[in-house]
Amino acid sequence: MNNNLLTLCVILLIIISGCGKKEESKTTAVIDKQTTEITAEELAAAEKAAAVEKAAAEKAAAEKAAAEKAAAKAEAKKLAAELAAAEARANKLAAELAEDCQKVYNLSQELYRAGKFIETMEILETTLRMEGCDEELNSKAFYLIGWNYANDQGKLEKARAMYQRVVDSFSPGLKYVDKAKRRLAGYKINDLAEDAYDNGGFGAAIALREQVVKEIGYDKELKAKNQYLIGFIYQYKLEELDKAKEAYQKVENIHPKSEYVNKAEQKLETL
Question: Is 21 or 186 the better-scoring residue by pLDDT?
């Protein structure tokens, strides 16, 4: 009987021990499940917090960019206003300078009409030193100085140099640049006539000088010179005195103020 009781006690202990392990296992599973649930909640909370932070940062960056864009736009508007004001001031100054240049030019023309050729050139040269004068007006001033040298003072080389200056200094296509080129063409033909004469081509020299005389747009003084030299060639190289006389008589009609008028008259006295 004692043995049976002992056996029964052992069986009870085994059952109690098994139940305890089973309960312990159940408790551990519950704890693991709760731990997993807590970790998921924390992760979700962290992700949400990160998303909120990112959204806040993006919003702040967008607001900063918008503010910088607005500031840049305001600065650009301010700069545009300043540039417009500066341009207006520049235009006003340019208009005032142009008016002054025109006044100086007008004065030169009054002096020219009064026969004061030297004074005219001095006034025209003033426009060349003035800042802001229109290129068309300056080219005209240069051109007229050349014209004055040739046709009022008989200084053909100075005139030629001034015409060349017009061509070299101002934009192609300007009215007085084209007129200067036209004047220079006459001097080039004159050069060809001199070359022909120097090489004994007296007939060719006469033909070239006649071309200078007939062409429109050449200096009257240059024409008078060439007309005189036509007579000179006829008289001294070809010995055709009647043609020489006829050539000399035409000089005055070309340019009465020319120094070649007196020279032609002196030659006529010898015929």
Answer: 186
Q: In angstroms, what is the C-alpha Rg of the chain?
A: 54
Domain containing 253 equals 175-268
Answer yes or no: is 86 within a domain: no
Torsion of the alpha carbons at 44, 48, 53 and 55, rounded to the nearest 10 = 140
What CATH number is associated with residue 227?
1.25.40.10
Q: What is the pLDDT of residues 195-252, one digit of tens each?
A: 999 999 999 999 999 999 999 999 999 999 999 999 999 999 999 999 999 999 999 9
Tens-digit pLDDT profile for residues 208-224: 999 999 999 999 999 99
Residue 203, in any domain of the structure? yes
Closest CA to 146 of 170, 133, 164, 169: 164
CB hemisphere CA count around 235 (13 angstroms):
18
| Full-model pTM | 0.61
| Residue 177 near residue 165 (C-beta atoms within 8 A) | no
